[in-house]
Recover the amino acids of this structure.
């Protein structure tokens, strides 16, 4: 149980285009989902906290107009990278909270912006 | 940055040996968790230790927590090639679900 999926697993796009990444909790309802970014050989950095039915809370330094988060249901959150640039190339990982001290992570999405 | 520090950054050991990695953090915590990440993959939850616990075991894993020193250690006994991965500690504080990850340790088990 407690499986989280992400789609796509990898994406390559041209500079200036927008990319949407989906995060789904498959067998549980998650009131809170989190989005992280991980650069090569580095740790995970929290980008934003997504609560179903309300606006996402972004961490300091993360542009909310560039990284649009929508949490439309208890099982789906989406991250849209708008007007992507090469510096946005990274590994994006989501997690879903089942209980207040447990997060389950998706397999990640590798974004490459040419 | 509130990010925790882990050491060593990288560790290579022979299969069968024990691996120990350490995590230090900066603020008072509610829980500390350890995760494993295989290259290019998502995170797998290994173990959670609460701030009022000092030691916890799970299979070949042993985690200690010293809140006075704001540090934790993860011991993997009888290592296997499949243990090759990056290991991260992550902390949360009371009343907040957000996790703060450590810098990670890259563990390589040599067959």
């Amino acid at each position: 149980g407690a499986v989280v999926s992400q789609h796509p697993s990898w994406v390559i796009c041209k500079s200036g285009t927008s990319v949407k990444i989906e995060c789904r909790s498959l067998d549980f309802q998650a009131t809170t989902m989190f989005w992280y970014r991980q650069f090569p050989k580095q740790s995970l950095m929290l980008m934003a906290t997504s609560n179903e039915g309300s606006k996402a809370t972004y961490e300091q330094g993360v542009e909310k107009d560039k990284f649009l988060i929508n949490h439309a249901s208890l099982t789906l959150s989406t991250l849209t990278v708008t007007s992507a640039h090469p510096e946005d190339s990274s590994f994006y990982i989501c997690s879903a909270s089942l209980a207040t001290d447990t997060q389950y992570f998706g397999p990640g999405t590798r974004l490459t912006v040419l | 940055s509130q990010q925790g520090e882990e050491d060593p950054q990288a560790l290579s050991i022979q299969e069968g040996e024990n691996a120990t990695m350490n995590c230090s953090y900066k603020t008072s915590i509610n829980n500390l968790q350890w995760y494993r990440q295989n290259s290019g993959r998502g995170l797998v939850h290994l173990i959670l230790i609460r701030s009022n616990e000092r030691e916890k075991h799970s299979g070949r894993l042993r985690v200690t927590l010293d809140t006075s020193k704001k540090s934790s250690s993860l011991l993997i006994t009888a290592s296997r090639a499949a243990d090759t991965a990056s290991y991260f500690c992550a902390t949360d504080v009371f009343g907040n679900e957000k996790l703060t990850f450590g810098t990670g340790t890259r563990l390589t088990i040599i067959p």
Chain B touches chain A through 22 residues (CB under 8 Å). The first strand of chain B starts at residue 5 and ends at 7.
